[in-house]
């Protein structure tokens, strides 16, 4: 699996405590609690949750991730200075709804193909991937959108690529 800069940043923000999306936090904790209790590394869910919260809060989770990166010949200061090592999109642009309303459906395939069209995925095995492009801050189903709350933020290589994706 290839990981874009945008996904990496979210993961690092989670590990360092800079930002933890509540929905991602809940899912991650549920999965990790299950792993710790199944592996007999915690006697029950409460102990597992406490252990997990502790390693997130004291920085141990981020530290171990940094050691893993270094062990794979990555930079030893990756966690602290990831912006120095990850490519950045040339254009970042918020996209707003034409009218006020609520997000009632999403064409996730079209969103995925839009990322591919920007270079963030492969059409053929020989294609290279631009790890800097994609979408962030996407509105979720049921969210209210208007001229103040964007549907998403596009990270693109060029203004042309960003405009094409905005139309979709």
UniProtKB/TrEMBL annotation:
<dbReference type="GO" id="GO:0009032">
    <property type="term" value="F:thymidine phosphorylase activity"/>
</dbReference>
<feature type="domain" description="Pyrimidine nucleoside phosphorylase C-terminal">
    <location>
        <begin position="102"/>
        <end position="167"/>
    </location>
</feature>
<dbReference type="GO" id="GO:0005829">
    <property type="term" value="C:cytosol"/>
</dbReference>
<dbReference type="InterPro" id="IPR013102">
    <property type="entry name" value="PYNP_C"/>
</dbReference>
<protein>
    <submittedName>
        <fullName>Thymidine phosphorylase</fullName>
        <ecNumber>2.4.2.4</ecNumber>
    </submittedName>
</protein>
<dbReference type="InterPro" id="IPR035902">
    <property type="entry name" value="Nuc_phospho_transferase"/>
</dbReference>
<keyword id="KW-0328">Glycosyltransferase</keyword>
<dbReference type="InterPro" id="IPR000053">
    <property type="entry name" value="Thymidine/pyrmidine_PPase"/>
</dbReference>
<dbReference type="InterPro" id="IPR036566">
    <property type="entry name" value="PYNP-like_C_sf"/>
</dbReference>
<dbReference type="Pfam" id="PF07831">
    <property type="entry name" value="PYNP_C"/>
</dbReference>
<dbReference type="GO" id="GO:0004645">
    <property type="term" value="F:1,4-alpha-oligoglucan phosphorylase activity"/>
</dbReference>
<dbReference type="GO" id="GO:0006206">
    <property type="term" value="P:pyrimidine nucleobase metabolic process"/>
</dbReference>
<dbReference type="GO" id="GO:0006213">
    <property type="term" value="P:pyrimidine nucleoside metabolic process"/>
</dbReference>
<keyword id="KW-0808">Transferase</keyword>
């Amino acid at each position: 699996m290839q990981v874009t800069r945008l996904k990496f940043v979210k993961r690092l923000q989670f590990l360092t405590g800079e930002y933890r999306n509540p929905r991602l936090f809940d899912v991650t904790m549920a999965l990790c609690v299950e792993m710790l209790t199944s592996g007999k590394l915690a006697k029950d869910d409460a102990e597992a949750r406490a252990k997990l919260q502790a390693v997130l809060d004291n920085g141990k989770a981020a530290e171990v991730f940094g050691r893993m990166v270094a062990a794979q010949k990555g930079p030893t200061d990756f966690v602290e200075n990831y912006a120095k090592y990850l490519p950045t999109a040339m254009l970042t642009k918020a996209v707003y709804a034409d009218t006020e309303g609520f997000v009632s459906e999403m064409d996730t395939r079209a969103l995925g193909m839009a990322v591919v069209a920007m270079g963030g995925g492969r059409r053929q095995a020989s294609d290279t991937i631009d790890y800097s492009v994609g979408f962030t801050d996407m509105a979720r189903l049921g969210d209210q959108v208007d001229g103040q709350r964007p549907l998403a933020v596009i990270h693109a290589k060029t203004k042309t690529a960003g405009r094409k994706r905005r139309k979709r």
